[in-house]
TrEMBL record:
The chain crosses the membrane at residues 176-193, 199-215. One of its GO terms (cellular component) is signal peptidase complex. This is Signal peptidase complex catalytic subunit SEC11. It comes from Gossypium barbadense (Sea Island cotton). It is an enzyme of class 3 (hydrolase). Catalytic component of the signal peptidase complex (SPC) which catalyzes the cleavage of N-terminal signal sequences from nascent proteins as they are translocated into the lumen of the endoplasmic reticulum. Specifically cleaves N-terminal signal peptides that contain a hydrophobic alpha-helix (h-region) shorter than 18-20 amino acids. It catalyses: Cleavage of hydrophobic, N-terminal signal or leader sequences from secreted and periplasmic proteins. One of its GO terms (biological process) is signal peptide processing. Its EC number is 3.4.21.89. NCBIfam families: sigpep_I_arch (TIGR02228). Keywords: Hydrolase, Membrane, Protease, Signal-anchor, Transmembrane, Transmembrane helix. Pfam families: Peptidase_S24. GO terms for molecular function: serine-type endopeptidase activity; signal peptidase activity.
C-alpha cells in the first residue's frame, strides 16, 4: 500500500511525496502529477519525474549494495587470513629495495612461531599507522614461552627501538598484525595520492556516487 501526502503546487502540476508503506523500502520518492482541470502541455514531465525517482532509488540501493559487499569481503578476508588488516599499503621507503612505496602487501597471521627474517606488519602504542619491517631478532622466554621480537627496516641503519613506545625494547605477539605473504607493486599509490591530496579523493567519490545514482541498470 502506498501512502500519499500533498506537498505543494507548481504551475499545472502537483508535487506528491510518496513513500512505501508496510514492509516496503524506507526511502522517499518524489513524483509530479497533473492537477485535475489543468491542460498539462507536456505529459513527458510526469514520466521524467517518475523516471528520475526510480533512478535515484536504484542509485541509493546500488550504493548500499556496493558498501555492504565490500564489508562482507573484508570480513571474509579477516577470517581467512587471521589478520585484522589483510591488505596494507607500504607508505615509506624503509623496506627498499624489496618493497617500495605504494606496494600492496597481503598479510596472513597463523599460530606458527615468528622467526627472524620474516616481514611483519605491527602496531606500536601511540602510533595510528602500522609499520612494515623485517624481524631481525627473536628471543623466546623459557619460563612463559612468550616471544620477544625486534624489527628493522631493510633500508634503515638501526633497529626499530626508536619507533617503539617509550621504554619498549621488544615487540610481542599482540603487536603483530600479520606476516607478508605476497604483494602487488605500485597499486597502493591510489591510496597514497588520495590521502595526501584529499581533493582528489572527494572528486573520485563524487564521480562514483554520481555514476551509481544515474545508472539505470
Amino acid at each position: 500500500m502506498i501512502a500519499m501526502q500533498k506537498w505543494k503546487k507548481y504551475m499545472c502540476f502537483q508535487w506528491i511525496k510518496t513513500w512505501p508503506g508496510g514492509s516496503g523500502y524506507p526511502i522517499i520518492i518524489h513524483q509530479y502529477y497533473c492537477l485535475p482541470g489543468n491542460d498539462c502541455e507536456n505529459q513527458v514531465k510526469n514520466k521524467w519525474a517518475v523516471e528520475v525517482s526510480g533512478i535515484s532509488f536504484n542509485g541509493f540501493r546500488g550504493t548500499g549494495m556496493i558498501v555492504t559487499s565490500a564489508l562482507i569481503i573484508w570480513k571474509a578476508l579477516m577470517c581467512i587470513t587471521g589478520s585484522e588488516s589483510p591488505v596494507v599499503v607500504v607508505l615509506s621507503g624503509s623496506m627498499e629495495p624489496g618493497f617500495k612505496r605504494g606496494d600492496i602487501l597481503f598479510l596472513h597471521m597463523s599460530k606458527d612461531p615468528i622467526r627472524a627474517g620474516e616481514i611483519v606488519v605491527f602496531n606500536v602504542d601511540g602510533r595510528e599507522i602500522p609499520i612494515v619491517h623485517r624481524v631481525i631478532k627473536v628471543h623466546e622466554r623459557q619460563d612463559t614461552g612468550e616471544v620477544d621480537v625486534l624489527t628493522k627496516g631493510d633500508n634503515n641503519y638501526g633497529d626499530d627501538r626508536l619507533l617503539y613506545a617509550q621504554g619498549q625494547q621488544w615487540l610481542h605477539r599482540h603487536h603483530i598484525m600479520g606476516r607478508a605473504v605476497g604483494f602487488l607493486p605500485y597499486v597502493g599509490w591510489v591510496t597514497i595520492i588520495m590521502t595526501e591530496k584529499p581533493i582528489i579523493k572527494y572528486i573520485l567519490i563524487g564521480a562514483l556516487g554520481l555514476l551509481v545514482i544515474t545508472s539505470k541498470d
